[in-house]
Design a protein that fits this description.
Elements lengths: L1 H8 L2 E5 L2 E4 H29 L7 H26 L8 H13 L2 H16 L7 E4 L2 E8 L3 E5 L5 E5 H6 L3 E2 L7 E9 L5 H14 L10 E7 L4 E9 L6 H18 L17 E7 L2 E6 L6
Antiparallel strand pairs: 1-2, 3-4, 3-7, 4-5, 5-6, 8-10, 9-10, 11-12
Amino acid sequence: MIEVLHAVLQFELFKLGARQVTVQMLLLLLLLVSAVLVSSGHFKRALVDRVLARTSLDPGVRESIGAIGRYIFVSVGLLVVFQSVGIDLSTLTVIAGALSVGIGFGLQTITNNLISGVIILFERPIKIGDRIEIGSIDGDVVDISIRATTVRTNDNIAIIVPNSQFISSTVINWSHTDRKVRFRIPVGVSYNVDPKKVREVLLAVGRAHPGVLADPPPSVTFDRFGDNALEFQLGVWTTDSIARPSAFRSELNFAIWEAFTEHKIEVPFPQRDIHLRGGELVLKTVPGETRHIALGRDES
């Protein structure tokens, strides 16, 4: 059995340059590559959780540095593995040339995503923990890999976005430099209401909401005299509510409506004056009763 096993392990599969690749060498290569990949994960976690955690870097930066460190670890480890099993890396140039042809024809998208992933990790236009919008996707960045980025929406749905989209598309990053953002809530009131009273009520609503920051304080601007209403805008700053912007706006709108109802501030709806010159106006007052009013040219 030992002789049979030895013969199987020494069976020549193919030649790589002047080197014979046997079953034993291939198994050893697979084992060492697996060990490098597993070790790289432990290396990243130790770098992020034990070394970088002691610094003042934010979590997104630590994760980016950890990812770059892992890729360097894997690259160096694979070089060591190939040399250990006796594979001359110079013989891989032919394979690299063949792969370049395949990349040129069929792997352009994958290569684009890989290069974009490296750019993201170094330039850091987005990082883990950021709140972003790209196209119709709105959510938090939870993972950045070399090929794709995972975004989790408010519905707890993980969306895998190719890295190339973050390089070629417009990305809205709500927390790129700071998680403090301002929301603007438009409000229209009747012309019969005192604008100063509206300002006081809106400021009170902004100060009362638990998600609104006291510094910078809420502000109210009188935008313009609209066709049907005086148009105001409530501006509030928040850090906790950027993960749920729709809910935050809804809460403020509910609070504004309750405050306006309490202070008898009218929110008007569009109105139009219709002038009829000549002809006949038909009015239906009650079922079965119809009134016809003849209009002269000067009546309206």
